[in-house]
From TrEMBL:
Its main location: membrane. It is a multi-pass membrane protein. Keywords: ATP-binding, Cell membrane, Membrane, Nucleotide-binding, Repeat, Transmembrane, Transmembrane helix, Transport. Residues 15-248, 260-498 form the ABC transporter domain. This is ATP-binding cassette domain-containing protein. The keyword Hydrolase does not apply. It comes from Microbacterium invictum.
Length: 845
């Protein structure tokens, strides 16, 4: 019943958008669109992929600014709001592609995205987070890194963030696409509860059944223009479909292929078992499509991954009469994963590159690729799928979800596969595109290529497939064909099964173990966490130290310990700065020349004969110079759009040149009293090293416990998601490079006391050394994860290796050999400990 319709005249609309237009690169995404959302109503927003639905809501929530138009929220005009301001005003957006940060934990994702006031009345942040996750039935450990969560779990986390702010306006963009039946029911109940409390909901979907069940009114967009707004019970499904696609759809599903009964099967699975499934057997003839049904997380995706050659299996797979191996399948099968952004697409590449990447041999002329042939074949294939993109060279990340899905389908067709595997092939895809994908899969199967489709939509499997196997807890509990192939039979078989669980690689299982205090889950989280590399470095240092001491007992003498720790102090401060740059996903090549340049600047002021005021001025000049350099680096990267390497390399060259201009030769001897003060020791421990440790502890606390640290890692983990949750990415990264340069200033003070003179040739080596120390400490070169503690131990290990070559009387060449071996070993160990395959193996034990 549409209660709101009769009350519209006496209440202020929650949201009014008028005359909204937006273009990207000259292509109109929205043209003069208006939308009004009433208090306490669920307003469905429909349209094909690329119709402008998500763009319109991104404008409403401040992620995108419109070219023209106005917005009013609860009677107050909104002007140039950003996501954080939208959140403060009570607007929450659950994105189709969750705005979660893979490198942060579940708890940290909540902390960085939600305003501090949300946690104010709770006994603790952890207790509030647990209660919030319980509301959406998300059973994960707060310390689990989000990269280990399934697609459905990431969506539930996104929903949890939205309901935490008790929004005035809640926008849900395809929220049920990856969810199982239980989670969908729970979501619907949550939506109804919010609406009963006065919240307005904009519900973006491609599923008309959901519109009928939930919505009061519906608005349809097509080609970026408003087509109609109507009360749901006053418009038919056929009228809605005509508005959405601009034409009449006769049938969503193509007619099923009539296979020859005595024809030999072209696809056979015999007692196939692997991680997450056991004893799967099924056959199909040419033209038949096999479906895989069941409640999400019961082995369907694991089966498809095995058939794609991504995991090992036991049993037999035969295609066209010949048995094939996992290695063969990895090369010849076309796999469309459910998580298209993480596994299906290379988001940094273009539409053309993503479509062509699996079919490069088809474009080859001799030893080279024929670009004309590539463009022609890709354009024809994507054109047949009606992919909407500004051009073939547009970034694939700029496409709507449905068009991204069609790019993956196009890539599968171009690769001429022996087997097609589609996991949730129509997830987030509009009605018209869905029919096109169904027809393509049917045509592929009719051409003799086996097709296997896994879907959480039983109606989809009923209409598309010829044989459906129903899986529960990794086992096949029913095989449906002909008259038995119905939605009711699939659901009944899945929910009434009494089979025992096969150990499935599912992060909810891992999380429940962790919540129960399972020690293996704790070890797993530690190994996958940021502090494992630091523990490994300590172990290596202890072993190396014991070996050197066994060869030379003067190694642990007071003089040697003091000397090493002084060297660590210089490298450590610079490496801490480099850590901040790498956490943002960047790098600072200029730290080496900067430290040398700062020493040269200091050599004009901090001299033996200089008065106190001159010395203070010298330190101020060094600090000011470092801040300016940091601002230049950050501005070049964020505002001039240089890459981090290009920007900092430019500054590297400039600083090195200025050093030699100021000091063509080494000159300007540093004040001895200043050097003596800075190198003061407490026993064998230099005071500077103690300061370094204190700075490390402070930075580590800030990284884990403050919004600065969460935002820093968020910007490095996923810039777009960070922006969506309200992080000011430009400011965060610019200030990060300023912090990098300021820590380099502290390293320059230590270097100045060690060399005692303004030498323009000093400092350059610290660029490579600092990067090495940070990488050894476990900080990712891709950004988002790392520790300052690990960087400290990485610096100590590097200095120890340098010292070892002296005590073991090795040639200087060994210094570089040992550093290279350490870096290679660290890279291999860290990659293995964090690999998804290793995580799956750990679960099965």
């Amino acid at each position: 019943m549409n209660i709101q319709a009769s009350e519209a005249q006496t209440t202020v609309d929650t949201l009014v958008m008028s005359g909204i237009s937006k273009s990207f690169g000259g292509v109109a995404a929205l043209t003069d669109v208006s939308l009004d959302v009433r208090p306490g109503e669920i307003h469905a927003l429909l349209g094909e992929n690329g119709a402008g639905k998500s763009t319109l809501m991104n404008i409403a929530t401040g992620t995108i600014r419109p070219d023209t138009g106005s917005m009013v929220l609860a009677g107050e005009e909104l002007d140039n709001i950003d996501p954080r301001e939208a959140s403060r005003r009570g607007i929450a957006f659950v994105h189709q592609h969750p705005a979660v940060l893979a490198d942060l934990t579940v708890l940290e994702n909540l902390l960085v995205a939600l305003p501090p006031a949300v946690f104010a009345d709770a006994p603790s942040k952890e207790d509030f987070a647990r209660s919030l996750l319980a509301k959406v039935n998300l059973r994960v450990h707060l310390a689990d890194r989000v990269e280990t969560l399934s697609v459905a779990q990431k969506h539930l986390l996104e929903i949890a963030k939205a309901i935490a702010v008790k929004p005035v306006l809640l926008v849900l963009d395809e929220p049920t696409a990856p969810l199982g039946e239980e989670s969908v029911r729970l979501l619907f109940d949550l939506v109804r509860d919010f609406v009963s409390g006065g919240t307005s909901v904009v519900y973006i979907t491609h599923r008309l059944a959901e519109v009928r069940e939930l919505a009061d009114r519906v608005t349809v967009l097509r080609d970026g223009r408003l087509r109609a707004t109507a009360v749901v019970h006053e418009i038919s499904d056929q009228e809605l479909l005509s508005l959405i696609v601009g034409r009449k759809l006769d049938s969503t599903f193509p007619p099923k292929f009539r296979a020859v009964q005595d024809e030999a099967p072209n696809f056979v699975l015999e007692r196939l078992s692997g991680p997450g499934f056991k004893d799967v057997s099924v056959t199909a003839r040419r033209g038949e499509i096999i479906g895989v049904a069941g409640v999400v997380g019961n082995g369907q995706s694991d089966l498809l991954r095995a058939l794609a050659g991504l995991t090992s299996f036991d049993g037999q797979v035969s295609i066209n009469g010949g048995e094939v191996s996992a290695r063969h399948l990895l090369r010849e099968a076309a796999y469309l994963p459910a998580d298209r952004l993480t596994e299906g697409l290379i988001t940094r590449l273009t539409v053309r590159e993503n479509a062509a990447v699996s079919a490069l041999t088809r474009f080859r002329s001799g030893f080279l690729l024929n670009r004309k042939r590539e463009i022609g074949m890709v354009a024809d294939t994507l054109g047949s799928l009606s992919v909407k993109a500004a051009s073939l060279e547009a970034p694939v990340a700029s496409l709507s979800g449905g068009n991204q899905q069609k790019v993956m389908v196009g890539r599968a067709l171009l690769s001429e596969p022996e087997l097609v595997l589609a996991d949730e092939p129509t997830q987030g895809v509009d009605v018209g595109a869905r029919a096109e994908i169904y027809q393509i899969l049917r045509d592929v199967s009719a051409a003799g290529i086996p097709v296997v489709v896994a879907s959480s939509d039983a109606k989809e499997l009923e209409g598309l497939c010829d044989t459906v196997i129903v899986m529960s807890r990794g086992h096949v509990v029913d095989v449906l064909r002909d008259d038995t192939l119905t939605e009711e039979r699939m659901i009944s078989a899945a929910v009434s099964s009494t089979t025992q669980t096969v150990r499935i690689d599912d992060s909810s299982i891992l999380a429940s173990r962790g919540a129960a205090g399972d020690w293996r889950a704790r070890i797993r989280r530690f190994i996958q966490g940021d502090y494992a590399p630091a523990v490994l470095l300590v172990a290596v240092m202890v072993v190396l130290g014991a070996f050197i001491f066994a060869q030379n007992d003067r190694y642990l003498g007071e003089f040697n310990i003091s000397a090493m720790l002084l060297l660590v102090s210089a490298l450590g401060f610079i490496a801490l700065g480099q850590t901040i740059a790498l956490l943002t996903g960047g790098i600072d090549l200029s730290v080496g020349p900067l430290v040398g340049f700062l020493v040269v600047v200091g050599s004009f002021f901090i001299l033996d004969e200089s008065p106190g005021a001159s010395i203070l001025l010298g330190f101020a000049a060094m600090l000011g110079t470092s801040i300016v350099v940091g601002l230049v680096n950050g501005s070049l990267i964020r505002f001039v759009r240089f890459t981090a390497i290009a920007a900092t390399l430019t500054v590297y060259i400039a600083l090195q040149g200025m050093s030699f201009i100021l000091r063509p030769t080494a000159d300007g001897y540093i004040n001895a009293e200043v050097s003596r003060l800075i190198t003061t020791k407490i026993g064998p421990i230099p005071l500077a090293f103690i300061v370094l440790v204190a700075v490390v502890v402070g930075l580590e606390f800030a990284l884990r416990r403050t919004r600065w640290g969460w935002r820093l890692r968020a910007a490095g983990s996923d810039e777009e998601s960070a922006r969506r949750v309200g992080v000011n990415v430009n400011r965060t990264i610019v200030l990060a490079y300023v912090a990098t340069s300021m820590l380099t200033f502290l390293g320059a003070i230590m270097l100045m006391t060690q060399i005692g003179v303004g030498d323009p040739s000093q400092g350059v080596a610290y660029t490579l050394s600092s990067i090495t120390a940070v990488v050894l400490g476990g900080t990712s070169l891709l950004g988002g994860r790392g520790t300052f503690v690990g960087t400290l131990f990485g610096s100590m290990l590097l200095v120890q290796v340098l010292n070892a070559t002296v005590f073991l009387r090795l040639d200087q060449m060994w210094q570089y050999v040992l550093q290279g071996v350490l870096i290679l070993a660290a890279a291999i160990l860290y990659a293995l400990s964090r690999s998804p395959r290793r995580r799956r193996a750990a679960v099965r034990k």
